[in-house]
Amino acid sequence: MFTITAVVTDDFGAMSEPCKIEGLEVTQKRLFGDANIFPAWARGSHGPYGGGEIGIFYYLIPYKLDVEAVVGGALALKGEPWKSIGMADFLINYHAGPAFFGAGAGFTTAVKETRDADFELLGNVGFDVFNNWNQVGSIFFRVRWPMGGERTFADNHKLILGFRLLF
Fold it and tell me: Measured on CA atoms in the order 123, 128, 132, 136, is the torsion positive or negative?
């Protein structure tokens, strides 16, 4: 709770008596837009990708627990038969000061014609580089682990190192 004292002055220099406002509460911003950019390495395609995502970010408990939902894609930086991919992610993150870690689920379109799309488990760790209440910038590392079928983690994971801007 905060107390504010205000004095008003008009165009002619007349001043009011001080006015005191007590019990003012400032709430933290909880809902943010979310934009991520990243390079990625996809095992299975043995190649690099460059990508980005946009979405929403919401603090369930401010600066302790959040949910993040993003969609985007990545351009294959290696030629045929590898394809650019679309992605969708849903994550829950726990914050310990500026550091955070979390998990979630994701979807990735096929990386080449002979492959199917993947449903994936996600792991996420990161660190807030800046936080000025209205914007938060973070560096994050995400691993994507395909589920089902014959896809093993050793041969089909994706690694992402990126920058996230909450606005």
Answer: negative
Beta-carbon contacts of residue 69 (< 8 Å; ≥ 6 apart)? 55, 56, 89, 90, 91
3-state secondary structure 21-72: EEEECCCCCCEEEEEEEEEEEECCCCEEEEEEEEEEEEEEECCCEEEEEEEE
User: What is 28-166's CATH topology?
Assistant: Porin (2.40.160)
Tens digit of each residue's pLDDT (9 = 90 or more) over 88-130 = 999 999 999 999 999 999 999 988 777 788 899 999 999 999 9
Pairing of strands 2-6, 19-24: antiparallel
Alpha helices in 59-164 (DSSP H): 153-156
Which tokens is 75 given? 């351009």
Q: How many H helices and E strands in the chain?
A: 1, 10
36-74 pLDDT, tens digit per residue, is: 999 998 876 667 999 999 999 999 999 999 999 999 999
How far is the C-alpha of 156 from the C-alpha of 125, rounded, in Å? 20
Euclidean distance between CA atoms 160 and 44, whole angstroms: 15
Enumerate the domain spans of the chain. Answer: 28-166
Phi, psi of 87 (to 5 degrees): -140, 150
